[in-house]
Design goal:
This protein is mostly helical. About 55% of the residues lie in helices and about 0% in strands. It is built from 56 helices and 4 strands. It has a two-stranded antiparallel sheet with strand order 1-2. Strands 3-4 form a two-stranded antiparallel ribbon. It starts with about 25 loop residues before the first helix and ends in a 47-residue tail after the last helix.
C-alpha cells in the first residue's frame, strides 16, 4: 500500500480529540471526490515514447519514487491498459504484472502502454505483431536508459517469434545492426535481462535467414556476436546463447538445394578452436569449459575437418590434468559419438583414430568417475564405429575388451559393475555387425591361426582366472552374453572356455553356481546341444554301473535352455541313452540295489524332460517328425509317467505347425494315430469292468489340453467323427464319471469343431443346464457353452442367440454355486453380442444376479461379476443407440432399483454403483451425481453394517469424482453423518471414516472441514492433520537423505539481478540438469580439484611426459597401507596394568578426511566432477549392543562370516560395554540387570539423622541383591570377578559383588 507523505505547515490543526470526528470542518478531498476530480480524464492520452523519455529525463535525479499510482502519466488507467486487445497471449504475462512492486515490471508495463497507445491511435480492432515490432524497434533506437532498454528488448523478444519469416529476412540488416550496436553500448552497464533478450532476438533473426544471406560478412559478424555470449560469465545469458546457437545450427534450411552443413559451421568451429587454444595456456579454464558444453551438442553437426581440429584441441586440454576439465572433455567426446553423425562429419578412420588416442587417457582402475566416463565414451565410439565400418570395429573390439577387463580388477564395486555393463552393452550393440566379419575370417584362416575371434574370446576366458575371483559373478554374466551373441557362429573357438567353465562347477565351495548355470544355459541356447556336448560330454556311461556323475548337473540346465534346435538329435542321442539308463535301472532293481536303481531312473527321467525343449520351434520338423511320432505313440501307450512330457511336446509341435503350412500338413497326417490314443487315455479306467487304472487328474488334464491343440490341425472329418461319437455316448451313458469325462472331451473339441458337431454339443449342454440335481454336469455344460460362445462357434451362437437368452433366464433360479463362474462368463459373452431391443429385457432380467455376484466370497467370481456389469453398461449403449452419457444414466437408474431390496442386495448395489461411477467418471452427468450425494446420508444412517461399509466406499469414490464446488454444498451434511461412525462405540468403521476425512481434508483443506466438525470430534481432525504433516516431513527427510547420500545437492536459486526477477526470467528455465556453473570458480590453482599421483614403493618416479601417465593421476586420494603399530596397547604405571578405555571401533579405524571419502560417498555419475563431502558413518559406531555377542574373527563371507557366541562372552570383550549408551555419554540402566556402577553414591542426605535409616536400608538391599540373578536370566557383569564399571573414577575400590574393578573408587563419585 503506498505511503502518504505530509508536510508540516503552520495551518489549522485539529483540536485535541477531534481527529476521529466523523464530521470534520474541512471537506476539501470529499468535495473533490464528489466533483470527479480523481476520475480518469476522458481526453485522449498524450503518452508517447518521446513524452515518456522526456518524463524520465525530468525525473532522472529524483531518488524518491513516491506512491505508486495505478494511472500512467498521460492518464492511462489500469482498466484502460487491460482493455487493450493484445493478439493471442504474447503480452498476457506482462498484463498480469501491472501492479507488480518491481521497478523492472512497472517499466515494461509503461513501455507496453506507451507503444500500445501509439499503435492503437486511430485504429479499432486487434493489433498485429508487425505493428508492435516496428514500434518497439523504433523505441529501441531512440532509448538510451538501461532499464528502458531492458524493457524494450524484453518486449521485442516476446513478439519477434510471432513476426513472419519474410519480414525478418527483409529487416534483418536493420534489426541486427540495432541489436548488435545497442548490445555493444550496454556491454558494461546493461543488465543480464537485456542481454538475454538481445540473445533471443538475434537467435530468431539468424534462424530465419536463407543460406545465401549467410555468405555475407555482415551475417557472419552478427553470428560471431551471438557466439561471444556462449562464453559469457552470466549463467542465464550463456545458457540462452548456447541454446539459440544449437537451434540455429540444427534448424532445417529453407533452400531447395540444402547444403550438407549449415553455413555458420566454419565460424562456429573457428570460434570454438580459438577459445580452446587461448584457454590451454592460462590458469583460468572457465571459458574452455563453457565452449566444451556447447560442443557437446553441436560437434556432431560440423564438417569432418572442423571435427578433427576440435578433437585435437579437446585431447590437448585433457593433458592438463585438471579433473573437471577432463570430465567435461569426455562429455564433449561422448556427445560426438552418441549423436551418430554421418560419415561426412565423423568418418570411420577418424573414429578409429580417436579411439586409439583415448587409450592414452585411460584412468586408474580405482578412480570411479573417470573410469565410468572413459568407458561410456569408448562404448559410444565403438557402437558408432560398428555402424560405419564393421571390419574396422572388429579390429578394435579385442583391445577395448581387454582394457575393460582391467577394470574388473578394481577395488571399487562401482568400477567393476560399470565395466561389466560396458562389456554387456558392447557385445549386444556391436555383436550383430562384427560377428559376420569374425566368422568370415575364421572360415578362411588356416588351421592354427589366431584370428580376431580367438583373441576376443581369450579375453572372456581370462575372466575365469583366480585373479578375477572378486568379480566372478560379473565375468560369468559377461561370458553368458558372449555365448549368446557369438555362440551361434563362432562356437569353434569356444570349446576350451566351455570346458573350463563347466570344471569350475565342481570346485569345492564355488559361490557363483547360479551365475555359472546361466552362462551354460546361454551357451546351449546359442550353439545347440549337439555342439555343446561335443565340447563337454555328459559321460553318463563312461564305465559300467557308475554311481557318480560329475556332469549330471547339466541335464536340469538343458531343460530350460534347449530351444530352436534339431529334434532329430533327441531321437538319435538322448532317447537311446534314456532307454539304456532305464534298462540299467531294471538290472539294478533285479540285483536288489534300489539306491543305485533310483539314481539311474532319475537320470532317464531328466533326459525325457528335455523333449519339450527339443519340440519348441524345432528346425527339422518336416523331416524328423515322422520318425519321432512312432516312438511318442508307443511311449504314450506303455509309460504313464511320460504322458505329461509327451503331451506338452505335442502341443509345442502343434504351435510351431500353426506358423508353417508344410509342418501343419505333416503333423495333421498323424492325427488319425494320436487322437484315438489320446481319447483312450482320457476315458481309461472310468468303467467298473476296466482292467486298467484311470489316469491321475494332472495327467488327464494334460491329455485334454493335447486333444484341444491337436484338433486345430486335425482334418475336419476326423474331428466330426469323434464329436458325433461323444454326443451319442452322452445320450446313452448313465454313469456319472463317464458322462463327466465325455463332457470334458466335448469341451476340448468344441473350440475347433464343425457347425453340425457344435449343434449337437449345444443340445446336450442346454439339457444339462436345466438339470439342477447334478451340479457337476451343470458346471461342465456352462463351460461347454462358454467355449462355444468364445472362438469356437460364434456363427452358431449368433444364430441361436434368442434361444440362449431364454435358457439362461430360465436357469437363473436353479444355478448351483459351482456353476456361477462359468455362467458369468457365458453371460458376459452373450451380453457382448446383444444388438436388438430384446437385449434390454435380457439385461434387466439378469441384472440382479450380476449385482449379487459382486458380493460373492470367491474373488474370481467377484471379478467376473464386475466384468459382466461393465459389459452390460456398454451393451445398453449399443442396444439403445444413444450417447455414452445417456446410456450410463439409464443403466445407473436400472441399478438404483436394487437399493429397495434386502440389506445384502442394497450393499451389492452400492458397490456396483461405485464401480460404474469410477469407471465412467467422465461420462456421468452432474445431475445424477447430485442425486447420489443426496442419497448418501440415508445410506450412512442404515442399521446394517454391510450397507454402511459399501456406502463408505461410494463416498470415497464420489469425493474423487464430484466437482469441488458441487461437493461443497453437501459437505456439512456428509461430515455430520460420517461423525456418527467415528465415535468410540463404533470401532468397526472408525478407520474407514478416518480415511474418508483424510480425503476430504485433501480436497477442501483443513479449515473448511474443521468448520463443520463439533468440538467433541475436534481431536479426530487434529490427529489427521498432525499425522499428515508428520508423514510429509518424513517423506521430505527421506528424500533429502537420499539426495545427500547420492551426492546430489539442491541448487539454491540466486537471481543474477534482483531487478530482473520474475518477468524477464519467466520465458526461460532457471537451470539445466547436469549443467555446471563454472563461472563460480575463481581463476587460479584454487579452482581446480585436487589430484593425487599413484606411485608404488618399488616403482620408478612418474614420467609426466608419458602419454599413459594420466592413469596414475587420480581424482581421489589413494588408500595407503596402514602400518601396524608395534606399540603396546597396555601401560604400566606404579605397578598397575592400565587398559585404554577407548572404543574399539574408534581405536582401530583411522579418521578419514573429506578427500578420502570423496569417492565413497560422492556422486557416481560418470560425468560428475564434484567432490563428495558427506562422511560415511563408521561401521563400528553402530549399536554396540549388536556387537556384544559377535565373535572376534577377521570377518568375511562364507565360513569366515561373523557368528554369534552361544552362552559366553566374546574374547577380548570388556565387561561393562553392554551398559554404554547409544546416543549419549555415560551409562544407562537396563531392565533385568544390575546397575552399571559398583558403588553407592555419596549424598548429604546420609548425614541427616532422619534420612539415615533410609540410606542404610538402600545399602543393605543393594548388597543383598548381588547374589540374586537378574530378572531376565542374564549374567551380571558386576556379580563377581574383576568388573569394569563405566561410571566411576579410575581406582582400585572394591565393586559390588566382591569384584575389584575400575568402576568404583573408594570415593565413589559417579561421573
Amino acid at each position: 500500500m503506498p505511503t502518504v507523505r505530509t508536510r508540516r505547515v503552520k495551518g489549522k490543526r485539529w483540536a485535541k480529540g477531534g481527529s476521529s470526528s466523523s464530521n470534520p470542518e474541512i471537506k476539501k478531498h470529499r468535495n473533490a471526490a464528489r466533483t470527479g476530480f480523481f476520475a480518469p480524464e476522458k481526453s485522449t492520452s498524450g503518452l508517447t515514447v518521446s513524452a515518456l523519455s522526456q518524463f524520465e529525463k525530468d525525473n532522472a535525479g529524483s531518488d524518491d519514487e513516491g506512491p505508486v499510482d495505478n494511472r500512467s502519466t498521460g492518464g492511462l488507467s489500469a482498466a484502460s491498459f487491460m482493455s487493450y486487445s493484445f493478439d493471442g497471449t504474447v503480452f498476457e504475462h506482462v498484463q498480469q504484472k501491472w501492479n507488480s512492486p518491481h521497478a523492472s515490471h512497472r517499466e515494461a508495463c509503461a513501455v507496453l502502454a506507451a507503444v500500445s497507445e501509439v499503435v492503437s491511435d486511430g485504429k479499432s480492432g486487434p493489433m498485429v505483431e508487425m505493428e508492435y515490432f516496428a514500434a518497439l524497434m523504433t523505441a529501441m533506437e531512440n532509448t538510451t536508459d538501461s532499464e528502458s532498454l531492458a524493457a524494450v528488448a524484453y518486449l521485442i523478444s516476446l513478439i519477434i517469434e510471432k513476426v513472419p519469416e519474410g519480414i525478418l529476412r527483409a529487416k534483418f540488416s536493420m534489426a541486427s545492426k540495432v541489436f548488435v550496436t545497442t548490445a555493444s553500448q550496454q556491454s558494461e552497464s546493461g543488465t543480464s535481462a537485456f542481454h538475454r533478450a538481445v540473445v533471443r532476438c538475434l537467435g530468431v533473426l539468424l534462424r530465419a535467414q536463407e543460406p545465401a544471406v549467410w555468405s555475407s560478412s555482415s551475417t557472419q559478424s552478427v553470428f560471431r556476436s551471438l557466439l561471444m555470449y556462449t562464453a559469457d560469465s552470466r549463467p542465464k545469458v550463456r545458457k540462452g546463447a548456447q541454446e539459440w546457437v544449437v537451434k540455429i545450427m540444427t534448424h532445417p534450411l529453407s533452400d531447395i538445394s540444402q547444403p550438407p552443413f549449415h553455413p555458420g559451421c566454419s565460424s562456429l568451429a573457428k570460434f570454438c578452436s580459438q577459445v580452446l587454444e587461448e584457454s590451454r595456456g592460462t590458469s583460468d579454464s572457465t571459458p574452455s569449459l563453457h565452449i566444451l558444453r556447447l560442443l557437446r551438442d553441436l560437434i556432431g553437426h560440423l564438417p569432418i575437418q572442423s571435427v578433427k581440429n576440435l578433437c585435437e584441441n579437446v585431447l590437448r586440454l585433457m593433458t592438463v590434468g585438471d579433473t573437471i576439465t577432463t570430465s567435461v572433455c569426455m562429455r564433449a567426446l561422448h556427445g560426438l559419438f552418441a549423436a551418430s553423425p554421418k560419415a561426412a562429419t565423423l568418418s570411420a578412420e577418424l573414429c578409429g583414430q580417436l579411439i586409439t588416442s583415448l587409450y592414452d587417457y585411460q584412468p586408474h582402475v580405482n578412480d570411479v568417475q573417470p573410469c565410468l566416463a572413459w568407458l561410456a565414451v569408448l562404448q559410444a565410439a565403438h557402437i558408432h564405429l560398428g555402424q560405419l565400418d564393421a571390419r574396422l570395429c572388429t579390429g578394435h573390439l579385442q583391445r577395448v575388451c581387454a582394457a575393460a577387463y582391467q577394470f574388473l580388477l578394481s577395488e571399487k564395486d562401482l568400477v567393476r559393475q560399470g565395466a561389466a555393463e560396458f562389456l554387456v552393452l558392447l557385445l549386444r550393440q556391436c555383436g550383430s555387425a562384427c560377428v559376420p566379419v569374425m566368422a568370415s575370417q575364421l572360415s578362411t584362416a588356416p588351421s592354427g591361426t589366431a584370428t580376431q575371434a580367438h583373441r576376443l574370446f581369450r579375453c572372456f576366458e581370462a575372466g575365469l582366472q583366480h585373479r578375477y575371483h572378486a568379480a566372478w559373478d560379473l565375468t560369468l554374466q559377461v561370458l553368458g552374453v558372449a555365448f549368446e551373441v557369438l555362440g551361434k557362429d563362432l562356437h569353434a573357438v569356444m570349446s576350451k572356455g566351455i570346458r573350463s567353465l563347466c570344471d569350475h562347477y565342481n570346485t569345492p565351495n564355488f559361490p557363483y553356481k547360479k551365475q555359472l548355470q546361466a552362462a551354460v544355459s546361454a551357451a546351449v541356447t546359442a550353439m545347440g546341444p549337439r555342439i555343446f556336448l561335443k565340447a563337454v560330454p555328459l559321460n553318463l556311461e563312461e564305465r559300467e554301473l557308475m554311481t557318480e556323475f560329475p556332469r549330471a548337473w547339466l541335464l536340469p540346465v538343458f531343460k530350460n535352455a534347449i530351444k530352436n534346435t534339431e529334434l532329430d538329435y533327441f531321437t538319435s542321442y538322448f532317447m537311446p541313452l534314456a532307454l539304456r539308463l532305464r534298462a540299467t535301472a531294471a538290472k539294478l532293481v533285479a540285483a536288489s540295489k534300489p539306491l543305485e536303481a533310483t539314481l539311474y531312473t532319475t537320470l532317464q527321467s531328466q533326459i525325457w524332460d528335455l523333449l519339450p525343449g527339443f519340440c519348441t520351434n524345432a528346425t527339422d520338423l518336416v523331416t524328423s517328425f515322422r520318425a519321432v511320432a512312432r516312438l511318442l505313440g508307443t511311449a504314450l501307450k506303455e509309460r504313464d509317467d511320460l504322458i505329461p512330457m509327451i503331451c506338452t511336446s505335442l502341443r509345442h509341435i502343434i504351435d510351431t505347425a500353426n506358423d508353417s503350412n508344410d509342418v501343419k500338413a505333416e503333423v495333421g497326417t498323424f492325427a488319425k494315430n494320436f487322437m484315438p490314443i489320446l481319447f483312450g487315455l482320457a476315458t481309461r479306467g472310468l468303467k467298473e469292468n476296466d482292467a486298467e487304472k484311470a489316469l491321475t487328474e494332472t495327467h488327464r488334464q494334460a491329455v485334454l489340453d493335447c486333444i484341444r491343440s491337436y484338433s486345430s490341425v486335425a482334418p475336419a472329418k476326423l474331428v466330426s467323427t469323434f464329436g458325433e461319437q461323444i454326443c451319442q455316448k452322452l445320450n446313452q451313458e448313465d454313469a456319472a464319471r463317464t458322462k463327466q469325462a465325455l463332457m470334458d472331451l466335448a469341451i476340448s473339441l468344441a473350440s475347433h469343431a464343425p457347425q453340425p458337431v457344435i449343434a449337437g454339443f449345444f443340445t446336450v449342454g442346454v439339457a444339462h443346464i436345466q438339470n439342477a440335481l447334478n451340479s457337476s454336469m451343470q458346471k461342465k455344460a456352462y463351460q461347454l457353452l462358454e467355449v462355444m460362445c468364445g472362438a469356437g462357434g460364434e456363427a452358431f451362437v449368433s444364430s441361436q442367440l434368442t434361444t440362449i437368452q431364454e435358457q439362461l433366464q430360465q436357469a437363473q433360479s436353479i444355478t448351483s454355486a459351482a456353476a456361477k463362474r462359468p455362467r458369468l462368463k457365458c453371460i458376459r459373452h452373450i451380453t457382448g453380442k446383444l444388438t436388438s431391443s430384446s437385449g434390454k429385457q435380457f439385461i434387466s432380467a439378469l441384472l440382479p444376479e450380476i449385482i449379487l455376484s459382486t458380493k460373492e466370497v470367491n474373488e474370481k467370481t467377484r471379478t467376473l461379476g464386475y466384468g459382466a456389469l461393465l459389459q452390460m453398461a456398454h451393451a445398453i449403449q449399443t442396444v439403445s443407440g444413444t450417447s455414452l452419457e445417456e446410456s450410463t444414466e439409464e443403466f445407473l437408474v436400472l441399478l438404483a432399483g436394487g437399493l429397495a431390496g434386502s440389506p445384502h442386495m442394497t450393499s451389492a448395489t452400492v458397490n456396483a454403483i461405485a464401480k460404474l461411477v469410477i469407471q465412467f467418471r467422465d461420462h456421468v452427468q452432474s445431475s445424477l451425481l447430485e442425486k447420489l450425494l443426496d442419497l448418501l446420508p440415508t445410506l450412512l444412517m442404515s442399521r446394517h453394517r454391510e450397507v454402511v461399509k459399501s456406502t463408505l466406499i461410494l463416498v470415497k469414490v464420489l469425493i474423487g469424482v464430484v466437482d469441488k464446488n458441487q461437493l461443497r454444498e453437501h459437505l456439512q451434511t456428509l461430515i455430520v453423518t460420517l461423525l456418527g461412525w467415528s465415535t468410540e462405540s463404533q470401532n468397526h468403521f472408525r478407520l474407514k471414516a478416518k480415511i474418508v476425512f483424510e480425503r476430504l481434508i485433501r480436497k477442501f483443506g483443513y479449515p473448511d472441514v474443521a468448520r463443520y466438525v463439533p468440538a467433541k470430534h475436534a481431536k479426530l481432525i487434529t490427529n489427521i492433520r498432525k499425522t499428515t504433516e508428520r508423514a510429509k516431513r518424513k517423506k521430505a527427510e527421506k528424500r533429502d537423505a537420499y539426495l545427500e547420500g547420492s551426492g546430489s545437492k539442491r541448487k539454491s536459486k540466486k537471481d543474477e539481478d534482483d531487478s530482473d526477477d520474475g518477468l524477464f526470467s519467466s520465458d526461460e528455465s532457471d537451470g539445466e540438469a547436469m549443467d555446471i556453473d563454472y563461472s563460480k570458480h575463481q581463476s587460479g590453482a584454487s579452482t581446480r580439484r585436487k589430484a593425487w599421483i599413484k606411485e608404488g614403493g618399488d616403482e620408478d618416479p612418474l614420467d609426466l611426459l608419458d602419454p599413459s601417465s594420466s592413469r596414475k593421476v587420480l581424482a581421489t586420494k589413494p588408500h595407503q597401507q596402514r602400518q601396524q603399530s608395534t606399540e603396546s596397547a597396555f601401560e604400566v604405571r606404579d605397578g598397575k596394568l592400565l587398559i585404554d578405555d577407548e572404543d574399539e571401533g574408534e581405536a582401530s579405524t583411522p579418521h578419514k578426511s573429506g578427500d578420502d571419502m570423496a569417492m565413497d560417498e560422492g556422486d557416481t555419475s560418470p560425468w560428475s566432477a564434484s567432490k563428495g563431502t558427506k562422511r560415511r558413518r563408521n561401521r563400528d559406531d553402530d549399536d554396540d549392543d549388536d556387537m556384544d555377542d559377535i565373535k572376534g574373527v577377521t570377518g568375511g563371507g562364507g565360513i569366515h562370516r561373523r557368528m554369534p557366541k552361544k552362552g559366553k562372552e566374546s574374547p577380548g570383550k570388556t565387561t561393562g560395554t553392554e551398559y554404554k549408551a547409544k546416543k549419549a555419554g555415560g551409562d544407562i540402566k537396563k531392565h533385568g540387570k544390575h546397575d552399571p556402577y559398583a558403588y553407592m553414591p555419596l549424598s548429604f542426605n546420609m548425614l541427616n539423622r532422619r534420612k539415615s535409616a533410609k540410606a542404610k536400608s538402600s545399602f543393605k538391599n543393594a548388597a543383598a541383591s548381588h547374589g540374586a540373578p537378574p530378572q531376565s536370566g542374564g549374567r551380571s557383569s558386576s556379580s563377581g570377578g574383576r568388573g569394569r564399571g563405566r561410571g566411576g573414577s579410575r581406582g582400585g575400590g572394591r565393586g559390588r559383588g566382591g569384584g575389584r574393578g575400575r568402576g568404583g573408587g573408594r570415593g565413589g563419585v559417579r561421573r
